[in-house]
Amino acid sequence: ERERQPNMPVQRVHTVSNEPMLGVVKKRRPKKLIDEIGLLNDLIGEAQTRRARRDKVAEEEVKVANAAKEEAERKLKEGIQPVVTPTPEEVSAVKRKVQYREDLFHFAVAGVAGGGKSSLINAFRGLHNKSIDNGAAATGITETTMELTRYPNANAEYPYVWYDVPGAGTLKTPDWQYFNAHGLYVFDCIIVLFDNRFTITDIAILTNCRRFKIPTYIVRSKADQHIRNIMKDTGYDSDDDESEDQKKTLYQAARQQFIRQTRQSVKDNLENANMPDQRVYIVSNEPMLGLVKERRLKKVIDEIELLNDLIWAAQTRRLRASTAS
């Protein structure tokens, strides 16, 4: 009777000798067999069973991979982009790259290429576009920001840092990769800036900001230019000898039309993307610059509210941080 080990199942013992086993393997006529044939058959059977299991697992893995690929392709065709979550190591690396500091508030200005991000950052910092020697961001009619650029606030009284993010919608970075490619997940606040149209790129940025619980501000830039264009479309000509009252009337009508159309456009786009309604701030660089430099304000639309809301967001964060510590 075979011995039983404690808590071990009963298991067969194969009794064999080398010469008979050699005869079985070499297909000779074996002599004096006991369990040689049974052992060899069991070993071969076990190997075949394990191989069949591996093949089945591999087949299932291929099916799962193909299904995932087909699902990803389907989502891409439907405009649904994959969700990519950065690792803790990636977050730390980006924070080092942007020189993130807990005692500062980090604003990133992002959006489609050519939207006026650099000019707006200059205005926020109280600098003219031509003040490059004083640290102003470079501007131009084409996309001038090729890399994420850090700009400390000109007034040290305000612990803010501004980041000029390269324009989205270029061949270098597809829309859905824009947020992660530039590490926007590390910033304290993101200004989504657009000029002509509120696009799917802007929606993608807002969607990712919601995932990471980052406050966002939708801003339409170059309001003064757009209002002038509407005035021209309605027949205004700066060379005509029109009275100041006529000019003011045309300006006010164009201004109201521009504001109304902008707010409705953003509202419709957010609704179509199944996103909650959100205010859009309509600004121009010159009024913003005048506001920051405490000059007499002219033709202001949302510049005061935007600046106040940004300052409030920064102060609220600092208050929460000090309370938590």
TrEMBL record:
Q: Sorted alphabetically, which Pfam families does this protein's record hold?
A: IIGP
Signal peptide bounds: none
In the UniProt record, which is one GO cellular component term?
membrane
TM regions (residue ranges):
none
Molecular function in Gene Ontology: GTP binding
Q: Which InterPro entries match?
A: G_IRG_dom, Immunity-related_GTPase-like, P-loop_NTPase
Q: Which intervals hold domain IRG-type G?
A: 103-303
Q: Which family is annotated?
A: Belongs to the TRAFAC class dynamin-like GTPase superfamily. IRG family.
Return the protein name.
Answer: Interferon-inducible GTPase-domain-containing protein
Q: Which organism is it from?
A: Suillus placidus
Lineage, opening ranks: Eukaryota, Fungi, Dikarya, Basidiomycota, Agaricomycotina
